[in-house]
Specification:
80% of the residues lie in helices and 0% in strands. Helix 7 (115-148) packs antiparallel against helix 17 (305-338), helix 8 runs antiparallel to helix 19 (347-370) and helix 13 crosses helix 14 (254-268). It has helices at residues 5-24, 32-37, 44-55, 59-71, 77-99, 105-113, 115-148, 152-167, 171-200, 203-210, 213-216, 224-238, 242-249, 254-268, 272-285, 294-302, 305-338, 340-343, 347-370, 378-402, 409-429, 436-457. The mean pLDDT is 84.
Length: 458
């Protein structure tokens, strides 16, 4: 990749502004509650910024273009599925979750099923989210390597430092404030991408002439059951992700929580289409490039340098912001639900430091884990992540929200353990078979049915 001075100036300026916002958000953080849920006083813009800043990451941009370069329009499922999940979150889950007055999914499940279920949900959710953090670092490392001419290890180090600047100081406030700016920058980048690719291909007719309809323009181009599983993974995974639930908990009230989730949904739904167009455009004009370079190279080759620099910074921020928001979610769960027993009586400062240290540790582990998987597909990690957390948590949480006290606590805990465990083992022993999400959800549902029957007898 070759960069002009204009590229570098606009890119570094954008990164500097975002880093300043993330660090300055520390002024709003005085307690662990401020760090985790913004003191439960955030309005719609911060809720939307937190959700969009996390969900529209490297997978929704670089990863979507990478998959579109390989298989076509079915790559849209990531943002399409996430947007539909956020609609469900806003319409059905946001109000009861916000009215609970809690901060984490494990706290909610503990209140309904006991401490064992809460601990199991914290572990399975953290493991699933960890793979999503890895996916976003995977998307950011090649971009940092190309821009600053660094090897993979040094690039991962830069990504690590940027994630820390994004979330370590300001917590949810940092994620939300930077997320608002990031949302604006992403839409400018995607709008420019849509215009250039549409005109460069000669409109819809040009795209259709360049590719056969199947599989390139079919939402089920990778196979019906594969793409349905991807959509289902996005639905159950998004609704089981701490960061998005955390944004709901942070709202001033239940109505604000609902409005924030729904607005985030309608912003998310169309964002994958320009990335898909960029993937197809680059497949037509540069078929020999590495698929993961499709979106960055499109920006360098086809956007004006001043806008290209901003767009490259935006792609980088998309990946970093998503990883930071997810790390915040994991850090909050681990500090509030795992480490809390050792922090009793030590005050708010100790809780705040524990939350920050958890974020730091999770981010560092994900950066190190990335080294062995630099050539893997970004979205594959995200679909695995969504499937793991969704298989174990979605059904027990849904029952707790809408039908509380209907399941024996022991069987709710087993539902979490078997759901995530079966999905993971299935993926290991049958990687090319039926999607592990189906097996995990079936195991989770089976335990809940048994728990319901036993509870009814009691």
């Amino acid at each position: 990749m070759t960069f002009t001075t204009a590229h570098m100036i606009s890119l570094l300026t954008t990164l500097a502004v975002v880093t300043f916002l993330g660090v300055s958000a520390a002024r709003k953080v005085k307690t662990a509650n401020d760090f985790a849920v913004g003191g439960q006083s955030t309005g719609v813009p911060i809720i939307v910024g937190t959700i969009i800043g996390t969900i529209i990451g490297g997978s929704a941009t670089i990863g979507t273009a990478q998959l579109a370069f390989t298989v076509g329009f079915s790559a849209w499922w990531f943002t399409l599925g996430a947007g539909l999940a956020l609609i469900v979150l806003g319409l059905f889950y946001a109000v009861p979750l916000r009215l609970s007055g809690l901060q984490t999914i494990p706290q909610f499940l503990t209140a309904n099923y006991g401490a064992a279920a809460g601990a199991l949900s914290g572990i399975t959710s953290s493991l699933g989210i960890f793979f999503s953090i890895v996916a976003n670092i995977l998307a950011a490392v090649p971009l940092i390597s190309a821009v600053f001419h660094l090897d993979a290890a040094a690039a991962a180090g830069v990504v690590f430092l940027l994630i820390v600047a994004y979330v370590f100081f300001g917590g949810l406030w940092g994620t939300g404030l930077v997320g608002v700016l990031k949302t604006v920058l992403i839409y400018v980048t995607l709008a420019a991408t849509a215009v250039v690719t549409y005109t460069g291909m000669g409109g819809v007719a040009g795209f259709v002439q360049s590719f056969p309809v199947y599989p390139w323009f079919n939402l089920f181009g990778r196979g019906y059951w594969t793409d349905v599983a991807s959509a289902l993974a996005l639905l159950v995974g998004t609704l089981s992700t701490q960061t998005y639930i955390q944004a709901v908990y942070a709202a001033t009230d239940a109505v604000t929580a609902r409005k924030g989730a729904l607005l985030a949904a309608f912003i998310t739904l169309p964002t994958g289409i320009p990335a898909v167009m960029a993937g197809l455009f680059m497949r037509t004009h540069h078929p020999d490039i590495a698929p993961i370079d499709a979106f960055p190279l499109f920006i360098i080759y086809y956007l004006p340098p001043w806008l290209g620099g901003i767009a490259l910074a935006t792609l980088l921020l998309a990946a970093i912001g998503s990883a930071a928001g997810l790390a915040l979610g994991v850090g909050t769960m681990l500090s509030r639900d795992i480490a809390a027993r050792w922090l009793k009586g030590r005050g708010e400062r100790a809780s705040l430091n524990a939350n920050r240290l958890m974020v730091l540790a999770i981010t560092l582990m994900a950066a190190v884990f990335t080294f062995g998987n630099l050539r893997s597909l970004v979205l594959e990690w995200n679909y695995l992540s969504m499937g793991l957390r969704g298989a174990g948590i979605f059904l027990p949480m849904t029952v707790a929200v809408f039908w509380p006290e209907r399941i024996q606590p022991r069987w709710a805990g087993l539902s979490i353990a078997y759901g995530a465990g079966v999905a993971l083992v299935w993926k290991l022993i049958w990687p090319q078979g039926i999607d592990p999400l189906y097996a995990g959800l079936l195991a989770s549902a089976g335990c809940l049915v048994i728990g319901f029957v036993k509870n009814k007898r009691v």
